[in-house]
Amino acid sequence: MAHKLTFTARDRLKLLLGGSAFALVGCGGGGGGNSGVTPPLVVTPPPTPPTPPAAFEPTVGQFKNAFAANFEIGAAIQEDQTLDADQDSQILKDQFNSITAEFQMKPEIIAPTEGVFDWTVPDALVQFAEDNNMVIRGHALLWHQATPDYFFAGTPAEVRTRLESYITEVVTRYKDRVFAWDVVNEVITDDNSASDPYRRSNWWDASGGNADYIDWAFNAARAADPNCQLFINDYNTELPGKRGRYVTVIKDLVDRGVPVDGVGHQMHLHVETPLAEALAAIDAIDDEFMGLIQHVTELDISLYNDPGSCFGDQTGCRADYGDNIPASVITQQAELYRDLFEGFAARSSVTSVTLWGVSDAQSWLNNFPITRTNAPLLWDRDRNAKSALQAILDPDFTP
Length: 399
Ligand code: XIL
Fold this sequence. Notes:
The structure is a single chain. The chain is of the alpha/beta class. The chain has one domain (about 60-395): Glycosidases (TIM Barrel, Alpha-Beta Barrel), CATH 3.20.20.80. The protein has helices spanning about 10-15, 20-25, 60-65, 85-95, 105-110, 120-130, 155-175, 200-205, 210-225, 240-255, 275-290, 310, 325-345, 385-395; strands at about 5, 40-45, 70-75, 100, 135-140, 180-185, 230-235, 260-265, 270, 295-300, 350-355. The strands form two sheets. It has an eight-stranded parallel β-barrel with strand order 3-4-5-6-7-8-10-11, surrounded by five helices. Strands 1-2 form a two-stranded antiparallel ribbon. The two termini are about 30 Å apart. Bound molecules: (3S,4R)-3-hydroxy-2-oxopiperidin-4-yl beta-D-xylopyranoside. (3S,4R)-3-hydroxy-2-oxopiperidin-4-yl beta-D-xylopyranoside binds near residues 102, 103, 185, 298 and 364.
């Protein structure tokens, strides 16, 4: 209810001048010739601003439970996020039922020196998953990055033996505990004019100028754990060129009986990624290969739609929003997240969806491809759920 207040002219002046009215009036010698009684003024104070809607807070388990019939909800994490003192640990336990090591199960961490294995952190991550009724995806057995140089030394036969022995050690250690491994990561070229679909890399060279290492890796993983789901994983499958090459390689592997169980789509997207192209990545695999399962392995939605040069020599990157992220960009992001989850849930081959992090504070995109404020995830820097999470979970909410 609005209150009407009665003010004298002097009160009104005081209000307008922020408390100095009495002094001013005193200096002016008493108000000129107006000697009569000042009539009271009736002032209606401005309306009270509406109370902002209560911040959205998912109920315990709401995110993972919402998709329990469709897929696991995963997050990429580092070991410190599993510790009770860390602000992400409770979010993880409450809202996620799958984890992936963001980098702590890559070869340079597990075996920095040939034949010397350090299981401390990987063991702790696997234990955290088991203690909290989560599954854990293994990431990644073979990649052209985060791999010590010794892996690439010697003849192709020596490289093969070393790779097989590394994969056998790692997959055997977590047999029946890690439910899926990214066996090969990013082996497809980004070059749309290339004569074959394979990335030219340290692995390509060490194999003797071919992609035989892919077969070696899958066969060793299958021999070590017959029940583990074995994945090929890559990024930019939302782009038609890369997607076509991905399909070509997977078709070849399947035709030759290489033990591939699943296809991973990293889905490092940005706010202007067309929804249809992201879902077309899933459909392209379903169309060709009934029976292969699919995981969205590294989902995030960058605020910035950068040109290729930004990822190459870090030029032409979109300007940093800093603390002034436009509301329209956050809305765009929420809408894309909402529509993606709806699309994934409608596709039965998708059995796992992993976000590449928990909160915007910890995302790799704050430092890649350049150092810049990014906000690509579902919880903000203060660990408040973002409108994107609300849009995913609440059909009545319009971001
Ligand atoms: C990134 C991590 O997020 C970083 O912390 C790390 O320094 C480098 O690797 N594709 C992948 C992931 O398959 O392993 C990468 O993770 C992101 C791109």
